[in-house]
Amino acid sequence: MNLKSHVTFSKQQRHGIFLLLVIIAVLQVVYFYLRFSEPEIPVKSAVIASLEREVDSLKRIELNNRTPKLYPVNPNYFNDYRGSLFGMSNEEIDRLLAFRKEGKWINSVAQFQSVTQVSDALLDSIIPYLKFPEWTKNQKATVSSTEKILTFAQKGDLNTATAKELRVISGVGPVLSDRIIKYRNRFVDGFISDIQLQDVYGLTPETISNIKKEFTVKSPRKINRININTASIDDLVTVQHIDYPLAHNIIEERTLREGFKSWDELKKVKGFPADKIEIIQLYLQIE
């Protein structure tokens, strides 16, 4: 077999191959030249600066939207959450809550600072949001000059009062009186304590105060208080305002702390309704 005939090119074929190589070389040079000689796109620094300012502005708007809005509020209705929004410490909030538990009212900015002991700097930031209704200013004078304070024996029993009897209270009309009775009847033997009036929808602190001047729980419902340091999840969910997720969080916090020593520790539980602590305490005890 003659192999030479398979590897030998004619003169015309050799010229064709040479021309093909030349074309490939030329194309490579053209590609290289075009690749590295593309004109640079000019970028104006002023345009970049403008875009950066717009991005920063959008970021600030987003941060402002995430920040809780502050509105004028009566400091007599402060709770742990509201106080924290205004930058108050736990100690300052506790002083205010203890003052209110005594049935006293904050009537001025000066009294607010005297009770809470907030700093002058913090007070200056809170003042624009403090709102004092006229009735809080006149509360003390009204009680001392026109009202007769009833003793426990003289008051009516909140667990036996009728809707008609409740309607004589200032601020309690047919709707609220019926609502109080319906809420009371949800429990066998009625209320445990006057504090449960806080759970009746529509009752303001002022109206509750007016009710307690004429009525109180004189025949409280009997309950067996649960030891929170040994209670199971099923035990805890029998308590008002405690559901399964909260009961789970209470058990978890209790384990971490190796038991609760005070009610303040219970307030640290994730999702705990601190404004309902007094009602929850009716069902629990710390041992």
Please state roughly what percent of the residues sit in beta strands, choosing from under 5%, 5-15%, 15-25%, 25-35%, 35-45% or over 45%. under 5%
**Average pLDDT over all residues:** 80
Structural class call reads: mainly alpha
Number of helices: 16
Low-confidence stretches: 140-146
Helix content: 40-55%
**Largest sheet data:** 2 strands, parallel
Number of strands: 4
Kindly report the spatial arrangement of strands forming the biggest sheet: 1-2
How far apart the termini lie comes to: 109 Å
Computed over alpha carbons, the radius of gyration is 38 Å
Pattern of helices and strands: HHHHHHHHHEHHHEEHHHHE
Report the principal-axis shape.
Answer: elongated
Written overview of the protein:
- The chain contains 16 helices and four strands.
- The model is unreliable at 140-146 (pLDDT under 50).
- Among the domains are: 75-143, no CATH class; 148-216, DNA polymerase, domain 1; 226-285, DNA polymerase, domain 1.
- The strands form two sheets. The chain has a two-stranded parallel sheet. A two-stranded parallel ribbon has the order 3-4.
- By secondary structure, it is an all-alpha fold.
- 52% of the residues lie in helices and 3% in strands.
